[in-house]
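Fill in residues.
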């Protein structure tokens, strides 16, 4: 008679062999693995200007992602395109970039990648076009370089005995021809040294974007010996400071006028590596982040045919970004030195901004609703101005000033981001092991298991739990919280004894 599968035999207790060990008579009270997070308010899509609002709604329609996910991708792409064109002049005279640092927290399966692919379509296309242009220009560049080198050698030979004539001739010859720019617009997991080298060879406005932000957090840039340098460099780029590079092999480089936009997407279990990192907090990087953590909706996305107009709406947004990406405001003598035009706030926008500035000061005081996120709240007025600049230029590429409507829209967005940061600050950042234990518990309940050996967890268990160590850690955490009890005498399945086994507490 054929044996049933191990998985099937685990379901009812009576299928276990008589040698099964007893369940421990004293069962601990169950403790929640974590306090269910407070659910945030819906993303204020209607605070966006028409083009951006339509793009967010269309991407959410086409992917069935939460609007906050679509908005993060849309604003990230918009900032990447806009920051090469405009800076913002704050009412007290400070000039700040329009670069944004965005973070989106969402589970696997929440359509992060799908939303980002649609929002970033113009960027990907610009990179492909840039590669084709560079390939077409490379032959001419090589010829020009060889001709320049030959001319230089001839001048040195001709005037080797007359320094004054040689210096005049070399000056007339000019600099060595520069190679065409690398086509990179977006990098995903660079070291700071690698990012600086990219700024030397590519366009002056780059994006650090990834729909798998764990690659960045787990890469070389965030290792113990590099983390502080990386965090400081990202802060400097957010502020628009010149890049000063000193390397033994490459010599010294000063790169003014560079801009960096950032949008990283993380699963919530990975987020503490950045949002909870002591150095990221103390250096001020976390205070510069616009974070959204929409609720996950597993199993709630039944098939829905997208609206007929959604693809055209996204294409219109991409067309606008493509025009902005195709050129940038640069120094007349240096294509890679940005000199964006300056957007001042008009009188109405200035009054709105000052009122928000003063309200932020009230809110970060002891007892205020932003007291726990004081560093973030202190930067909120500047962030609002940056956001307003992005909204204005995407909506009207030739705009010369920020009006009150755009500032009010940006402040509404900042209110949402502030509420999100305050909400996240008020609840524990869940570590990966707790999330794995919760996933295992849900999986066990779905299977209806009452008793099981440890081995079956990593042989048959949920994705991502494929080692004995992972299974043991998750089960022990569930034991600590009263959802499982160890079986002291093990469990026998198909005449095979499993020394490590657990019983499920069902009441």
């Amino acid at each position: 008679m054929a044996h049933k599968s191990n998985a099937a035999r685990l379901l009812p207790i009576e299928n276990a062999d008589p040698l099964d060990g007893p369940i421990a008579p004293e069962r601990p009270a169950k403790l929640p693995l974590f306090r269910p997070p407070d659910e945030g308010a819906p993303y204020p899509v209607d605070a966006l200007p028409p083009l951006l609002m339509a793009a967010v709604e269309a991407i959410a329609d086409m992917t069935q992602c939460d609007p906050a996910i679509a908005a993060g991708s849309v604003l990230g792409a918009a900032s990447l395109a806009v920051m090469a064109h405009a800076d913002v002049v704050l009412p007290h005279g400070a000039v700040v970039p329009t670069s944004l640092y965005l973070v989106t927290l969402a589970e696997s399966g929440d359509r992060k990648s799908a939303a980002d692919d649609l929002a970033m379509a113009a960027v990907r296309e610009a990179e492909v076009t840039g590669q084709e242009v560079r390939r077409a220009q490379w032959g001419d560049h090589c010829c020009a370089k060889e001709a320049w080198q030959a001319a230089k050698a001839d001048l040195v030979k001709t005037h080797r005995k007359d320094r004054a004539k040689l210096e005049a001739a070399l000056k007339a010859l000019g600099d060595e021809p520069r190679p065409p720019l690398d086509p990179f617009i977006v990098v995903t997991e660079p070291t700071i040294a690698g990012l600086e080298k990219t700024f030397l060879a590519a366009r002056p406005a780059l994006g650090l974007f990834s729909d798998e932000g764990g690659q960045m957090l787990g890469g070389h840039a965030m290792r113990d010996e590099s983390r502080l340098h990386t965090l400081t460099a990202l802060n400097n780029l957010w502020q628009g400071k010149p890049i000063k590079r000193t390397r033994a092999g490459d010599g010294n480089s000063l790169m003014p006028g560079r801009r960096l936009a950032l949008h990283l997407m993380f699963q919530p279990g990975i987020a503490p590596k950045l949002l909870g990192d002591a150095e990221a907090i103390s250096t001020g990087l976390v205070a510069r982040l616009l974070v959204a953590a929409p609720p996950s909706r597993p199993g709630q996305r039944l098939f829905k045919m997208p609206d007929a107009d959604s693809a055209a709406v996204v294409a219109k947004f991409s067309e606008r970004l493509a025009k902005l990406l195709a050129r940038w405001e640069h120094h007349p003598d240096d294509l890679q030195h940005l000199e964006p035009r300056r957007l001042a706030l008009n009188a109405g926008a200035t009054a709105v901004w000052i009122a928000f500035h003063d309200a932020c000061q009230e809110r970060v005081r002891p007892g205020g609703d932003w007291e726990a996120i004081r560093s973030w709240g202190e930067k909120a007025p500047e962030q609002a101005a940056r956001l307003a600049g992005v909204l204005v230029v995407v909506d009207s590429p030739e705009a010369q000033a920020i009006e009150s409507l755009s500032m009010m829209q940006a402040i509404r967005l900042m209110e949402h981001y502030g509420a999100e940061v305050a909400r996240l600050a008020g609840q524990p950042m869940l570590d990966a092991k707790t999330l794995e234990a919760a996933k295992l518990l849900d999986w066990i309940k779905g299977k209806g298991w009452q008793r099981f050996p440890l081995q079956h967890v990593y042989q048959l268990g949920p994705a991502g739990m494929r080692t004995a160590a992972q299974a043991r850690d998750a089960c022990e955490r569930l034991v600590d919280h009263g959802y499982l009890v160890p079986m002291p005498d093990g469990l026998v399945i198909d005449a095979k004894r499993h020394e490590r086994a657990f019983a499920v507490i069902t009441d």
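Confidence is low (pLDDT under 50) at residues 1-25.
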